[in-house]
Amino acid sequence: MQRIGLRFCRMVGCLLILIGGPSVQALAQPYNTARPWTYWWWMGSAVNEKDITHQLEQFAKAGLGGVHIIPIYGAKGYEQQFIPFLSDRWLAVFSHTVREGKRLGLGVDLTTGTGWPFGGPNVTPEIAAKQWKVENGKLTTTLTKQQVKRAAPGGAGLVVDYFSSEAMQRYLQRFDSTVNQLPDKPRAVYNDSYEAYGANWTTNFLAEFQKRRGYDLNSQLPALLDTTGSEISVRVHQDYHQTLSELLHDGFTATWTNWSRQRGYQSRNQAHGSPGNLIDLYALADIPETESFGSSRFPIPGLRVDENYEVDRFGTPNPLAMKFASSAAHLTGKKLVSSETGTWLADHFKVSLAQIKPQIDELFTSGINHVFYHGTTYSPQVASWPGWLFYASTNYGPSSHSWPHLPLLNQYVERCQSRLQNSQPDNDMLVYFPMHDLWAKPAKSSGGTHQLEVHHVDRWLLQLPFGRLCEQLQKQGFAVDFISDALLKRLTVGRNGVLQSGKATYRVIVVPASTFMPETTLQILSTLAKQGARIIFEKAMPQQVPGYQNWQGRTNELRQLGRSLEKMKNVAVGKDVATALAQSGARRESWAERGLSFIRKKHGDTTQYFVANLSNQFTEDWIALSTAGQSVTSYNPLTGETTPLATRSGKAGQLDVWLRLLPGQSCFLNVVPQQVEQAGRLIQPPSRRPLPEAGAVTLSSPWQIQFGRGRPNVTTTATMPALTSWTTLGDSAAYFSGTARYTTTFDLPANVDLTRSFTLDLGDVREVAEVRLNGQPLGTAWCLPYLVTIPASQLKKQGNRLEVDVTNLSANYMRLYDRQHPEWKRFYDINIVDIRYRPFDASRWEPVPSGLLGPVRMKW
Where are the transmembrane segments (predicted)? Predict the structure, then answer.
């Protein structure tokens, strides 16, 4: 490992993660959380020790850090090999997995059940999911009768009552007598997103409501059933949802989390979809987990999205939804924030690495630092291609066309997550989430509840002033976290009015335009303001308390508190939130308005930005950093290279830095308080910005193409006068999935300086390109933009030979294979479906463009 000066490490936040070297995480524990982990579906749990070891060794070699086992429905024809969940044989193969994981440095997580949500054969009607109904003028209890979805053998049964602590404790007893008795245990247990449809009640709901809200819900039954939105109806519905939220918090989340910790597990929880305050539910977990489902519509040139993906039906990822999980982690001091990543990016056999990277970059800028691919499927070695596949995933496994190059993505993720996991949040403001305003609106989810899902944030989050304000703040370049009524209680006020929650610090609290706020919450804000905290209320003070009991008296108390708060110098009320933020000292990264996404963090005395260009507005320019410092370095997680950047003094004492970041690219900016010393040598930042590109030439000579490894076997060789998809070369080529070599020769203009480095722009690549120049490897381009650097003196004036090996998707071969071998689709339950959830049929697909499409340009 290259020796790096300790002062340099401290200043630039370096984690000693070098190409090919072990990470700090890997040295500190038996598994590596900086590397991406993966969902690992056990179909029918038809697994065996030999194949488990084989696949884990493949995962470790590819650069994965761990697996998350989810027992699921099985494959037809393998019924005799199905292993019932939690049987003695199942526990034996699970123990083998954990032991092999330790040997290979892979962590192992486990769903506390099969499929989703929690439930199974030990769930009796007494502890099963409930809903309310009206009988003889009174609220009574009935079963939802929901069964576990996608259950594995031994896991079928009723869904458990998530609102009952007693029900959850009885459900978990099944694991106390099985998994908890093993010497080899998982790192963490997991709960999938809340999908207990129609569940809106529990057996003792009325008693809990009376205790928590102070009145008998049956006494206000007409208001509960009222759909006109009358004032009393709104208040009763707020009380109903508040009670449901608290019961979910106490009955499921706290019970399950405490059970996990007592048995030595961490808990990973996808709280979204819940009829409760997501921030509080995420905050209970050791590892809060969000979800990235579908593809975002980034305007990155060349980025493709599947035209068959139904946005209206499934929604798209949204950074604001992701921030509920990361905010909870920041406020409660959790090191890891995970994400189900890459679910349904495109149809099966059509997802490229270039589509995955921007989605991961979006997660990183939203505070996520522990990626779980969604995912890989256990597949026995005897299963012919494409092996066993899960119906809804992006295939990251060994049968995927991406597998040979997946280590490149894994290395990129590891380099990023190493830095993100070992730094502290540096967001300036907390935005209060007005849960009670949402509960005042008609519920649209099943069972008449507000289920806060990540798929369609436009249906709840973006409709609130909270959502509109957060979108505006994000675009303006303010760094924010969200906070709930409950988590406000964690805040303390330090010097200069700095708000603290553990190691996280903030400069201001922003309350979006809100109608309802508990008087207890405004009292907390008043106390913080008296201690010097800066608070901004958008438009006006909240004027109403939520809930029915004594609401007139509590509203008077709220308004009196509000009038007192408005008189404080460190409290602002008005429409111009941005101006108030500037006056409060909140930092603004103005360059975010040019389409650059970022997260700002601290590592020692270094301020660290992760910046991703997920738009098409910026290429290069001076940008003004809000953070003071004397020098800035750029770290490229694709290459592992650190480069000093040109800086200058900007306006109002800001530090300007020259940044070149093309659409699709990302980097870390490390801002240090003084010039950087490396191995005893002072690194001076460049005195001026890099020179612009002086010229470019398009390689217009004919290309020779020769097909190599792939399916079906193609022996065609051809000369292309101009670059085009190889699918135009005949029927065999139109079905080919694999690698083809493109070769050409070229000369350079006579006046080109060969002592400088060059950039090779490959243009449109479908999908991964391994490049060699004059017999020397230049690297592999696998993401947008498809660029490789040509070192100085590697070019000649004449007779340069360029070879580009391009690997495409497997979609074209699947067009043929699905026609010839439809029997490969042999899975129970939902089997294999397309991205619209229709029966999968690739035989009707048109050929997908493949190969080097160019234009290929040499730039200097």
Answer: none
Q: What is the pTM of this model?
A: 0.95
CB 148 within 8 A of CB 156: yes
Share of the chain above pLDDT 70, in %: 96
User: Is the CB of residue 541 less than 8 Å from the CB of residue 566?
Assistant: yes
Region of 315 (left: φ > 0; alpha: ψ -120 to 50; beta: rest) is left
Q: For the chain, give the number of residues.
A: 860
The burial class, CB within 10 Å (0-12 / 13-18 / 19+), for 135 is exposed
pLDDT digits (tens, 9 = 90+) for 172-214: 999 999 999 999 999 999 999 999 999 999 999 999 999 999 9
**Rg for the chain (alpha carbons), in Å?**
28
Q: What is the mean pLDDT of the chain?
A: 94
Residue type, 496: N
Query: Could you tell me the maximum CA-CA distance found in the chain, to the nearest angstrom?
Result: 95
Asked if residue 46 lies in contact with residue 38, where contact means CB atoms within 8 angstroms, the answer is no
- Write the single-letter amino acid at 436: H
**Token output for 675:** 């010039």
Angle at 497 between CA 495 and CA 502, to 5 degrees: 75
Within a 10 A sphere around the Cβ of 93, how many other Cβ atoms? 18
Report the amino acid identity of residue 225: L
Q: Which two tokens stand for residue 597?
A: 């996404």
Question: Measured on CA atoms in the order 674, 678, 684, 690, is the torsion positive or negative?
Answer: negative
Nearest alpha-carbon partner for 364 in 768, 44, 667: 667
Give the CA distances from residue 742 to residues 126, 705, 706, 717, 782, in Å, rounded to whole numbers and listed in that order: 67, 5, 7, 10, 16
- Measured CA distances, 223 to 232, 442, 832 (Å): 6, 13, 46
Q: Which residue has the higher pLDDT, 675 or 498?
A: 498
CA distance 847 to 724: 13
d(CA 742, CA 47): 42
For 551-562, the pLDDT digits (tens) are: 999 999 999 999
* pLDDT confidence of residue 523: 98
Asked if 762 and 772 touch (Cβ cutoff 8 Å), the reply is no
Question: Backbone phi, then psi, for 49, in 5-degree steps?
Answer: -60, -40
Residue 446 CB burial class (10 angstroms; 0-12, 13-18, ≥19): middle
Distance, CA of 159 to CA of 518 (rounded, Å):
34
Of 101-105, 683-687, 698-702, 787-791, minimum mean pLDDT range: 683-687
Tokens standing for 610?
Answer: 């992760």
Cα(529)–Cα(570) distance, rounded to whole angstroms?
A: 7
Confidence of residue 690 (pLDDT cuts 50, 70, 90): confident
Q: What is the pLDDT of residue 692?
A: 75
pLDDT score recorded for residue 726: 98
- d(CA 443, CA 453) in angstroms, rounded, equals 13
Confidence of residue 653 (pLDDT cuts 50, 70, 90): confident
**Closest by alpha carbon to 412, among 598, 640, 599?**
640
Q: How far apart are CA 103 and CA 516, in angstroms?
A: 55
What is the distance between the alpha carbons of residues 462 and 498, in angstroms, rounded to a whole number? 29
Nearest CA to 673 among 632, 633, 629?
629
Residue 649: CB partners within 8 Å, gap ≥ 6? Answer: 655, 656
Average pLDDT (844-858) is 97
